[in-house]
Amino acid sequence: MLIEFKDSIRIIFKQYPYKYRDHAYIASQAALAARDQGKFWEMHNMLLQKSPRLDRSSLIQYAKEIGMDVDRFAKDLDTKKHKPQIDRDLKLAMDIDLYNTPTFFINGRKVVGNRPYEYLRGIVKEELARVKK
């Protein structure tokens, strides 16, 4: 999506750690700590691939595997550096009655659940056409 529409869309990724998953919150922290080192998507993909193994020691191992500064990463986790942002994202989710992940908002259109690329692509194309009118 980013490659095909790189000059036309912006993706904003929010954290919504599911409250009933043991390691969801620390996984969100890991994603943001990785973002700070330019490795958000690498960590994102690793978290999806390795789930449910998302405990602290596993996250440290994943950071090593994707070439992060592990000491900095561990410090970010241990100090909960990104807690304010995660808590802000959680509040936003409650305010907009978000109940499922993933949820996409494409120019205000809410799309709930994992959808095929072509489905999302179609909505993006519709919205781009509508905006150009």
Spatially, the strands of the biggest sheet line up as 1-2
| SS summary, helix count | 6
What is the average of the pLDDT values?
92
Task: Return the domain count.
Answer: 2
What general form does the structure show?
globular
Report how far the terminal alpha carbons are from each other.
22 Å
Elements, N to C (H/E): HHHHHEEH
Helix/strand/pairing class, anyone? mainly alpha
Strand tally is 2
Helix content: 40-55%
Task: Using the coordinates above, name the CATH class of the largest domain.
Answer: Alpha Beta
Uncertain stretches of 5 or more adjacent residues: none
> What can be said about the biggest beta sheet?
2 strands, antiparallel
Fraction in beta strands: 5-15%
List its traits.
mainly alpha; 133 residues; Glutaredoxin; 54% helix; 6% strand
